[in-house]
Every structure is written in C-alpha cells, then in structure tokens.
Amino acid sequence: MLENKSQTRTELSTLGEFKLIEHLSQFVKLSQSSTIKGIGDDAAVIKNELEATLISTDLLLENVHFDLTYFPLKHLGYKAAVVNFSDLLAMNVKPRQIIVGLAVSNRFSLEAIEEIYAGLLLACERYGVDLVGGDTSGSQAGLCLAITAIGQAQQSDIVYRNGAKEHDLICVSGDLGSAYAGLLLLEREKVEFLANPNMQPDLQNNDYVLERQLKPEPRFDILNLFKEKNIKPTAMIDISDGLASELLHICRESKVGCMLYDSKIPIDSTACSTLEIFNISPTVAALNGGEDYELLFTIPQSDYDKIKDSHDITVIGHIVDENSGCMLVPENGAMIELKAQGML
Ligand code: ADP
Ligand code: MG
Asked: Cα separation of 242 and 238, whole Å?
C-alpha cells in the first residue's frame, strides 16, 4: 500500500496559510493541456476544449466520513481524489482537474498535511489529473477535505443515470463487497486497539479487502474499454453506497424496473472469507456495503458481444418495464423486492 513518512513534527502555526500553500504547491506537477493556470492566482484558468464542462464535489469530514484511528493520511488523500474521479467517470468522462478545500485544526502538523497531499498527488499523477487550486483554513475541530473534480466532454458522450431501457443488460465492473469487508476488519481492530493500545493489529492475509477499503482505484480502464469497443452505456452510476441503492437510482431515473440475479453478483473469494467471520452474507455486503467505486451501467443487448470476453465486467441482470418492479432473483426460491438499506 502507501508507505509512511518521517516522525518529525512542524507546527502549522510556524508557517501560516501563505507559506503552507507555497510549500505544498512545490509538489504539484501539471500535465493537462487544458490547464492554463494552476495554483498561484485568484482563480485557476482552464481552456475550454470540448462542448461541456462537468463538475462534481464531495465533502469529507473527520469522524463522519473517515476515522483517522485506522485511516492513514496518505490513503485518505488518495481515496478523497479517487472518490471524486469516480463521480466523473460515472458520467463517462475523465476528470482533468481538481480543486481542494482543506480545513485543519492545530492538531495536525505540516508533515500530516504533506501526507494528505502526497496521497492526493499520487492519485493525480497516476491518472493524469491536475491539482489546480483550493482554499485553506483553520478549523476548531477535526479535518475537512472538500474536493471538486472538473472534466470536459462532447455532449453526445455524456452518460446519465436516466437512459436505461427495457431489455438492456445490467453490468458491473470489478467485484463488490470487498471494501465493506475491509471496513469490518479495520473497525474490529479499532475496538481492540482502544481497549489495549499496545496491541499490534491482526490484519495479516487480508491485503485485498484492506486495499479495497483504504485504496480504491478509479475505473479509467473501463472508460478506455468503452472507447475501444465503441460502447456508450445507456445509463451509468458509480457504486459508492452499495449496489442496491445505485441500481434503484438508475431504475428510478430511467423509469424502468430490473431483475438482478443474486448468483451473478461478482464477489471476491477472500472477501467472502472475511464476511463469513462477521456472519454477513456476501450478497448483503455487495448490495448494501458500499465504497467499492466500481461502475454500474446498462447496455443494449446488441452490445453483449463487445463485453462478453472482458474478465472485469459481469452481467448481473436486465432491465424490465417499470410496472414489473425492481427485483432480486435468488438462485433458489422466490424473487424479492430490491431494497436499499445502507450498512455504513
Ligand atoms: P485567496 O485569498 O484569494 O482565497 P488563497 O491565499 O486562499 O487566495 O489562495 C492562493 C492560491 O493558492 C490560489 O491559487 C488557490 O487556489 C491556492 N490554494 C489555496 N489553498 C489551497 C489548497 N489547500 N490546495 C491547493 N491550492 C490551494
Ligand atoms: Mg482562499
């Protein structure tokens, strides 16, 4: 995963806001041709190269959205960027720039902020996104990160939630439920750590699920595949709150129903083992766990041949008319209505 840095502590009060921004901006490299001006003036400047601009923002609050007891700061920065990238990818658009709002209390040192930025910038570099500005403020309690992602597209390439049609195939990238399995492990270790601060966490052999929770990857590769195969999904959303909730969003917006096949939902075998320890059914974790940041999308049946050989895309059901409702079909037994019940 992401390595940790030094133990020195420089108080933010010795720098002040201006010096902090100056310090952080030395690590920022720009790579997008559409970035005309990044950090350093009153506003960033972005060249309009395509018809439409897409903007999405996400607010991350300490102890509401993340827990620093077990979430390393560099991972937090990385995940904060990824979560925002994912929202644009879910529109079939690659993010090009981000802007970062940061509020920190004096509990945090310069080195801590450097760690967050190291994570943010690692994600930016890996995916060719420019960090072009932000705002910085002191906070009375806790850490707050507000990230805005910006992208550009031709209008005809944008995919909304509302285009799913009867008979379309419902597809998902990657596997589901692993991030939730990782969270369960981290929460368990936190309880034990608080009871006995000298203990060493027992997180061996759980690399995959921990990585899915602490370091999710945005699915730029799926957008590349769409382009390569000439696929434009009829509807798409990213899975932040669990498959059930996201599929219901697509159905509601598209005014359709769905048949989701329980046994088709892709779940990693190590995630299954972890979930078993906690007595949680893998299907329930996939449906309601969330934070997988995979893409859920619908395509016409005629596009099936284009995706059938991809190991990273699974067909999990199909769209039906609105009156048939949204149904979960178990392998054995009667269909049940699909419901969104958050577990986080
Ligand atoms: P202003 O007083 O006009 O708001 P700031 O001093 O806040 O200006 O910002 C100066 C420059 O630094 C701007 O280009 C802004 O986008 C950038 N900036 C401020 N805070 C951050 C941050 N946390 N991350 C990245 N860039 C930042
Ligand atoms: Mg400012």
From this structure: 9
